[in-house]
Amino acid sequence: MPFPKDIGFGNYTQGIFQGIEETSYRLVVQSHENINVDTLPQIIEHYAGVIFYPINKGSDLELLYSLYLNHVPTVILDKEYEGIDFTTIVSDNKQGGYEATKYLLESGLEKIGFVSSQPIMDISTVRERYLGYLKALHDAGNKDKTLYQGKSGQTTEQFIDKIVASVKKKEIEGLVVENDIIAISLINSLKQAGISIPEEISIVGFDNIQASELIEPKLTTVAQNFNQMGYLACQKLIEQIEKPYPQSDTIVVAVDFIERGTTKKGRNE
Fold it and tell me: Transcriptional regulator LacI/GalR-like sensor domain spans which residues (predicted)?
C-alpha cells in the first residue's frame, strides 16, 4: 500500500482480513518505500503472494513486471496494466463519473467541469471517471466541457487557486472532482474566498473517505466498496497461489452515489 496509515486511503485491509479468516495465511502490510526491485528476492523468499496498490502506472511498472517474470502470485488493486497478465480489482470508475455528472445535470446545472490534479493519461482510474463525465454530457446533449488538469511543476495550491478564480468569474457551476481529498481542499479554498457551497458552486468527490462526512457542508461523493475490493483481491490471490496456471481477470466492483450537502439537491444533508 502507498499510504497504509493514511485515513484518506481506502480500508482494503478489512476485506483482506475477512478473506484469510479461515485460512492458514496471514497479512503483512508494507508501505511502498519498503518494496522495490531490489527487495524482490526477499519477497519471493518470504511471501506466498502479493496484493499491490500502484501509486501510478509509470513508477511501479518495473517492479510489477519483475513480479510477473518471476511468477510471483500477484493481484493489483485500483489500476489496470496493459501487457502484464495479473488479475486486477477495480471500481466502476466510469459509471461513477457518469452518475456524478448526470446528477449535476439533473440539478439544473449546465456548466460542469472535471477536476484532475494530475494529467488525465497518468492514472487509469481518474481517466475512467473522466470518460464517464464525458459520456454523461454527451447523453444529455451538453457540449460545454471543461477540464481542469494539473501539470508538471504546479503545486496543488496553485492548481486549486486556478479553479477558485474560475468559480469567482462564474465560468463554472458544478465540479466532478477526481477524489475526495482534492475536493475537500477545493472546498476549504472556496470557503476562504467567500464562495457559498452549493449556492454558487456544486461539488461531487470520489471515494467517500471518512473526512467527507466531517467537512461542512458534507461532501456529496461516489463511494467505492473498499471492503469488497480487498476481499475479492484476497480470494483471487489465494486462487493463484493454490491453483496452477489460474486465469487472470479484471473484476469491476460497483460504486454508490451518496448525496450530501455540497450539491443543491442534497443541501439539507
Answer: 102-263
* pLDDT per residue as tens digits for the range 160-207: 999 999 999 999 999 999 999 999 999 999 999 999 999 999 999 999
Measuring CA to CA, which residue among 261, 255, 263, 265 is closest to residue 129?
255
Cell matching residue 136: 454523461
237's grid cell: 490471490
Do 132 and 162 fall within a single domain? yes
Considering the entire predicted model, what is its pTM? 0.89
Whether residue 105 sits in one domain with residue 20: no
Burial class (CB in 10 A: 0-12, 13-18, 19+), 83: exposed
In a domain, 7, yes or no: no
Cell 482494503, residue? 12
Domain containing residue 35: CATH number: 3.40.50.2300
**HEC sequence for 197-209:** CCCCCEEEEEECC
Q: Could you tell me if 32 and 57 lie in one domain? A: yes
- Residue 7 in contact with residue 34, Cβ under 8 Å? no
